[in-house]
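Usage

Read records sequentially. Each one opens with the input sequence:
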Amino acid sequence: MVRPVNPPEHRARAARRIRRPTLSLTTDRSLTWLLTALLAGTGLAACGPSKPDAGGNPFGSGAPVVVIATPVATRSHVDRYTALGTARANESIDVMSRISSAVTKINFTEGQRVTAGDLLIELDNDEIRANLNMAEASLKQKRSQYRRSSALGETRVVSAAELEELEAGVQMAEAEVRAAGARLKHAFIRAPFAGTVGLRHVSPGDLVGPETMMTTLDDTDLIKLEFTIPEAFLSSLETGMTIEAASAVYPDRSFHGTVTSIDSRVDTATRSLTVIAVIPNDGDLLKPGMFLTVALEKERDDVLLIPEEALVPRQGRQFVFIIEEGRAVEKQVELGIRSPGLAEVRSGLAVGDVLITEGMQKVRSGAAVEVLGSS
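and closes with the structure output:
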């Protein structure tokens, strides 16, 4: 019996041989990389983790970080702050009447300089004078009656109680005279201080009362400049310090004054407080209500200033690095006034500390550092 040349079982075995996996060039390279990584890991494990050196440096005994540092020192510094202020008169009032009456005479012209006690406005006072005359006559009568009764009292004709009643009547009459005299005085409106009268708002014949503003009076020989400053500048502010003010009206002129008052409270909304400075107003150039720019200056000695680039801000706080025994040490600092390129350190540093000013990006606390130079 003759069998087929390629029986089915032979074809099946041949198919299985064809599907047997073979290693390609890509697989050989993958195995090579895997073996290399395993050998590298084994070598690193054999080396073990780095340990602090004898000085306790957690970064091991690697090469020190090259930095630029400078010794911390104090210097003189002038604190400057610019604010916006409003000019006010040294003394200022709205001239008003204390009584209700008609205007009979106006004794000033608008813009006139007056002295203390000068008569400004006279009100109708005929009725007031009549009441004063009646009060004076009543007082005269009661005093005469009291004198006669006092003489009779020595003879026991008038009792002591009657004399006391008559004496009280005299005192009441005297009070009525004083009241009538005060009303008459209020009919003559006078300047309470020297100054400049403003525009008048009444005319002869106008009926005025306690709520009627007739004119204004300002003492502008001195100008009070009112402005606000942030509470951060409070430590550099004190009464007696000089200020310099400028106005857009007089671009080529500056006005110098002195701080006289500092508010006792800080505004909780703006975190600022009000300051008043007095400026001599020679030539009457400044007017109440004018807008001025204020520059404050105060020179301080022994201020510890460091370059701003030495600061390392983190989570709302400020840090610096100093060098101790060849290693970087991180310090938290509290800052004060800042000026271009400089920052005042109020706490956290001492004079003589060696401060790292450049290269902090590669420095960690405790790392060895090498000072390349001074900034």
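Summary fields computed downstream for this record:
- The domain at 65-73+311-373 is CATH 2.40.420.20 (conserved putative lor/sdh protein from methanococcus maripaludis s2 fold).
- The chain is about 25% helix and 40% strand.
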